[in-house]
Amino acid sequence: MARVGLTKELVVLAAAEIADRDGLDALTLAALAAALGVKTPSLYAHLGGLDDLRLRLAALAAAQLGDVLAPAAAGLSRGEALREIGHVYRQWANEHPGLYAALQPASPAREPAAEQVLALVLAVLRGYGLEGDQAIHAARTVRAALHGFVTLEAQGGFGIPVDLGDSFAWMLAALDRGLASA
Amino acid sequence: MARVGLTKELVVLAAAEIADRDGLDALTLAALAAALGVKTPSLYAHLGGLDDLRLRLAALAAAQLGDVLAPAAAGLSRGEALREIGHVYRQWANEHPGLYAALQPASPAREPAAEQVLALVLAVLRGYGLEGDQAIHAARTVRAALHGFVTLEAQGGFGIPVDLGDSFAWMLAALDRGLASA
DNA sequence: AGCCACTTCCTACGGCTCTTAGGTTAGCGC
DNA sequence: GCGCTAACCTAAGAGCCGTAGGAAGTGGCT
After folding, report:
1. Cα Rg of chain A (Å, integer)
2. Which of A6, A119, A122, A179 has the lowest CB atom count within 10 Å?
3. Distance A2 CA to D2 C1' (A)
């Protein structure tokens, strides 16, 4: 019985790879164990089970997204910052569909990263002169638009053959105008 | 063996009720059969299986959403029409979380209703002077914002204790300004 | 009325999922 | 070299979807 030498980190990374390649639904403990060259019950030495795996995946995703987003708006303001954050957000989501999907049911595991992103967005919104409740409304607006677009795109929800990148850029420009005139 | 007298319609309606009450994930053939007072395999007389049930649910959801949305913007234009459509959309989604979720993986089953909704939105956008590709970009923007907000709301994705209705109204107003200045 | 055919509904089963319980063995520290 | 930890295993159970094949209620036809 040659030991594989798994660690929690290796297991979660392998899970992320499966989720991104085959979809989050294809991430089963059986598939994960097979990918690691191990029998399914052996995973319970490293994980608390499927729910625990999903939480760890969500935490990993939140951390990664936070890391790519953090430097995106450095030195930019208003429209430029919004556009940059938007494009980085969309690109990361497109490159990591499984991880992005794992982010979905809001869980405590991703709370810290969520607050990091929120702070980042609020900083940009201050450039628009938005504070207090206004800033919260605006942050939710931006988040809803980004999340909605990326989600619909991932699910093939946009049927019409008009370039999605153009539409995304158009949306960010419209958001910029909407925020600027608040 | 008293017969229950099921029909495809009754089965799908019962499924919709379970999905809305307990969540789409809780909609299993076993749960559906139990709710109908029948054993699981009996459902196969009315359905092709779980995938088929999900498609039928998506078709039902698309039809319902189209029906409530169609008269929403009658006699209104621009900002008022957008606000009305938005509120009806959100209200329906909040009242039917299971059906709304069933709409998710874009399937051929909901195509007709999707086109109906698209035509409705495009009509409103004409009020903003948007045509051709511009109108497509704008329609995608509106859809992304609505879908994103409603989805995040359903998942408890908005943590901060600021009124969600206010945020939604703010988003619709921001969209209106963004579209008006396109 | 009586019978036939249809369709609903059933039991039984196989394969997949996650999960727990308990035993074996590899490899590190003493 | 020996023992302890933990990584890994087999075995088993509950729940899921889906298929196969049989029994029974219901409507139509003679």
Report:
1. 19
2. A119
3. 22
A-chain CB neighbours of B138 within 8 Å are 170, 174
Residues of A in contact with B152 (CB under 8 A): 106, 140, 143-144, 147
Phi-psi region of A75 (alpha: psi -120 to 50; beta: other; left: phi over 0): left
CA A86/CA A147 separation, integer angstroms: 10
DSSP assignment string, chain B: -------HHHHHHHHHHHHHHH-GGG--HHHHHHHHTS-GGGGGGT-S-HHHHHHHHHHHHHHHHHHHHTTTTTT--HHHHHHHHHHHHHHHHHH-HHHHHHT-S--GGGHHHHHHHHHHHHHHHHTTT--HHHHHHHHHHHHHHHHHHHHHHHTT---S-S-HHHHHHHHHHHHHHHHHT-
pLDDT tens profile A55-111: 999 999 999 999 999 999 888 889 999 999 999 999 999 999 999 999 988 787 788
Q: What is the dihedral of CA A65, A67, A70, A75, to 10 degrees?
A: -120
Given a contact cutoff of 8 angstroms between Cβ atoms, the answer to whether B120 and B70 are in contact is yes
CA of B136 to C1' of C2 (A): 67
Residues with CB under 7 A from strand D: A 1, 3-6, 38-39, 41-42, 44-46; B 1-3, 28-31, 40-41, 44, 49-51
pTM for the whole structure: 0.94
Q: Where are the alpha helices (DSSP H) in chain A?
A: 8-22, 29-36, 50-69, 78-95, 97-102, 111-126, 132-154, 164-180
Give dist(CA A10, CA B37) in Å, integer.
46
* Tens-digit pLDDT profile for residues B47-103: 999 999 999 999 999 999 999 999 998 888 899 999 999 999 999 999 999 999 999
CB B95: neighbour CB atoms within 10 A?
Answer: 11
Instruction: Look at A141 and B174 and tell me if their CB atoms are within 8 Å.
Output: yes
